[in-house]
């Protein structure tokens, strides 16, 4: 049924190659195992520029507790980096999908045994679906968040709720409309807003560094939150911002 292939995301390949050859080769080698295979046989991976930024941030800031939301190649990269540099950094990576959890363990992409299974909880507020991993960890300790999950998930909609549906892509040309739910049903949500970062920000009551992959709605939510709190948006890094304003670290 699924004929989509695993495609390597190449944005920023040159920079990654030039600045972090060792880790470029690490990712490339593991990508080669899945290149051209069926989409369901490999985790999706991130753009090269994302890995490069991740490495630079970790080596420059040496965070004490990295929380990763959505496991994958980034887990492998960060685990290897922490090991190589003997960093005093705890890595906790939350994954909700047993299939991807098993895949990561089987493919030996979790060198520090950081990946744990977590349930998800989702709710609808003002037409937007929020989602969080329910795994328990110390919210006060986290000083870096890598936000790339969850992927698609099932949410039970109640009668009378509404959902904001975005019809078009790419993002410059998006159009949203509201869909009123007339029958309760379970529906796959593709663009939920991850709430774990919000819990950390509320608990610590100060900005905490975060790197977000894609996830337009999640990013917008946090940009608004930062504006309301008069916090600098430099704490939230995304692939787009990486390209527009290259990392100074
Ligand atoms: C985009 S992936 C995480 C990517 C990770 N940061 C990386 O660089 O590999 C986010 C979530 O999507 C899910 N996922 C990953 N690959 C998938 C695939 N090929 N099909 C469906 N879901 C996938 C997993 O549950 C994962 O936690």
Structure write-up:
- With 249 residues, the protein is an alpha/beta fold.
- The chain has one domain (13-244).
- The protein contains 8 helices and 13 strands.
- The strands form 4 sheets. Strands 3-2-1-6-12-13 form a 6-stranded parallel β-sheet, sandwiched between helices. It has a 3-stranded mixed β-sheet with strand order 4-5-11. The chain has a two-stranded antiparallel ribbon with strand order 7-10.
- Strand 4 and strand 5 (128-133) form a beta hairpin.
- Helix 1 runs parallel beside helix 3 and helix 3 (48-61) runs parallel beside helix 4.
- The model has no long low-confidence stretch (mean pLDDT 89).
- The structure holds S-adenosylmethionine.
Small-molecule binders here are: S-adenosylmethionine
**Amino- and carboxy-terminal Cα gap:** 45 Å
Beta-strand content: 15-25%
What proportion of the residues is helical, as a percent range?
Answer: 25-40%
Give the number of DSSP strands. Answer: 13
Query: What do the pLDDT scores average to?
Result: 89
Estimated structural class: alpha/beta
- The count of helical stretches stands at 8
User: Can you list the strand order of the major beta sheet?
Assistant: 3-2-1-6-12-13
Q: How do the helices and strands follow one another from N- to C-terminus? A: HHHEHEHEEEEEEEEEHEHEH
**Rough outline:** globular
């Amino acid at each position: 049924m699924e004929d989509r292939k695993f495609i390597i995301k190449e944005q920023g390949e040159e920079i990654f190659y030039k600045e972090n050859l060792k880790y470029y080769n690490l990712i490339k080698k593991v990508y080669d195992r899945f290149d051209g295979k069926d989409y369901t046989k490999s985790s999706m991976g991130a753009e090269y520029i994302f890995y490069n930024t991740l490495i630079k941030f970790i080596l420059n800031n040496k965070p004490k507790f990295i929380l990763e939301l959505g496991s994958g190649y980034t887990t492998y990269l960060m685990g290897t980096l922490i090991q190589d540099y003997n960093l005093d950094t705890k890595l906790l990576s939350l994954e909700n999908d047993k299939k991807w959890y098993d895949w990561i363990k089987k493919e030996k992409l979790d060198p520090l045994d950081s990946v744990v299974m977590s349930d998800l909880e989702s709710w609808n507020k003002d037409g937007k679906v929020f989602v969080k991993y329910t795994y328990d960890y110390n919210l006060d300790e986290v000083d870096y968040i890598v936000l790339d999950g969850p992927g698609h998930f099932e949410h039970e909609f109640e009668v009378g709720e509404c959902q904001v549906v975005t019809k078009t892509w790419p993002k410059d040309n998006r159009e949203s409309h509201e869909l009123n739910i007339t029958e309760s049903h379970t529906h796959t949500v593709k663009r939920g807003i991850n709430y774990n970062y919000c819990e950390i920000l509320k608990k610590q009551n100060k900005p905490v560094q975060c790197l977000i992959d894609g996830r337009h709605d999640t990013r917008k939510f946090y940009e608004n939150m930062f504006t309301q709190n008069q916090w600098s948006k430099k704490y939230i890094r995304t692939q787009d911002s990486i390209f527009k304003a290259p990392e100074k670290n």
